[in-house]
Amino acid sequence: MTGVQTCALPILYQMCKPIILLAVLFALAGCSRQGGADLNSGVNMVQVSTPTRQLTSTATATETPLQSATPTITSTPENTATPTITFTPEYTATPVPTATQIPTPTPIPPPFLDTLIANLMNGNASQVVGVYVEDVMSLRVVQQPSSDPAYVSTLPNTATYFSMVRQMTGNTGLLAHNYLAGAYFFNLQSGQIITLIYGDGSTDDYMVSYSEQFQALSPNSPTSNFVSLSSGETLSSTDLFYRVFGGGTRTTMQTCIAQGNEDSWGRLFVIAPLE
Q: How far apart are CA 241 and CA 1, in angstroms?
């Protein structure tokens, strides 16, 4: 199974196709460098005038001693400390992830049939509430809303009762997305017993006879034609519906076959006549 996911389940109705948009955000952190103070400020020197002798008008000259001029030195400004510059590491862009293949769930041992029956009973003898295959799957069955014949549950370990099958053929059809409970349908093999559980606790057993796989020529169209992967025969959606759901008393399990990036590329049907 591939991709994330959808499965156009009922043949005559188009399923919704959730699309996951992966948004990858890149942040670029810049760094700036601030300049420091000038470290080479000079010293201002005061020019010292040359002293002169002062002569009196008397014959005897009194020598005035020279005074050594003391140069006045302006104070050197203290160096302003150069600010420490922190370099912000460049942001490494996160690579865009590629589409991840969705693995087929590994079947886990289901609870004992009696335990499942006890958990699902609701008193309604005419309503299918569960489906059980020993060592393969143990699923709750939910009903389609009367106003939505294309509804398929998105809950794990849950199949959906295909109401149109009962209305048009009298048989039982169970639907599940290929990335949820429908993945278990690929593990069903000829000769295995499918047990339907009713709301009053009663059960019916069906034995898997065979499975069929078809490619949908228009995967997301509710009126697509289908090509059998075994014989190459092309069937309309209506003909395929009666072929897999009609006939003698049976239960048919339906899910999608994914191919490449197309999760609704084809359909898998597992046919199990009443024991």
A: 24
DSSP type of residue 265 = E
0.90 cut: is pTM over it? Answer: no
CA distance 11 to 222: 6
User: Number of C-alpha atoms within 13 angstroms, CB side, residue 66?
Assistant: 7
CA angle 175, 191, 238 (to 5 degrees): 35
**Residues whose CB is less than 8 angstroms from the CB of residue 170 and which lie 6 or more positions away in sequence, other chains included:** 249
What does each C-alpha distance from 125 to 115, 199, 203 come to in angstroms? 18, 5, 10
Residue pair 162/152 in contact by the 8 Å Cβ criterion: no
For residue 73, the 8-state DSSP code is B
* Residue among 71, 90, 137, 78 at smallest CA distance from 109: 137
Put the strands of the sheet holding 210-216 in their side by side order. 203-207, 193-198, 128-133, 137-143, 158-161, 172-175, 250-259, 262-273, 210-216, 226-228, 234-235
The pLDDT tens digits of the residues spanning 183-234 come to 999 999 999 999 999 999 999 999 999 999 999 999 888 789 999 999 999 9
Rounded CA separation 217/224 (Å):
6
In sequence order, what are the residues at sequence separation of 6 or more whose Cβ sits closer than 8 angstroms to the Cβ of residue 114? none
User: What is the Cα–Cα distance from 255 to 24, expressed in whole angstroms?
Assistant: 32
Tokens read off for 136:
């393969």
Q: What are phi and psi of 273, to 5 degrees?
A: -70, 160
Each domain of the chain, given as residue ranges in start order, spans 1-31+73-275
Kindly report the CATH number that applies to the domain delimited by 1-31+73-275.
2.40.260.10
CA distance 135 to 105: 14
